[in-house]
Amino acid sequence: MSETTKKLNNLQDMLIDEFIERINSGAATPSDLNAARQLLKDNGVHATVTNENPLTELTKVLPFEDPSENIVSINEQRLQKRI
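Above: the chain's sequence. Below: its structure in token form.
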């Protein structure tokens, strides 16, 4: 492993540790949370909502509508235009 690769890995480890510390302490800003989210995404870390993980509780408190409630089929749109 090259010296540059070692430094980059060390920098990433320090960044991850900093994110964890800020989030656990409650000091994380929205920018910190977004940067942590992007770091996870960039590294292929994904999560699935299940009853066994905290994502289920997060989805309950987010102020977003269920997109499936707003889906209208093309046939329904055509029928509405005829009426």
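The longest helix spans residues 3-25.
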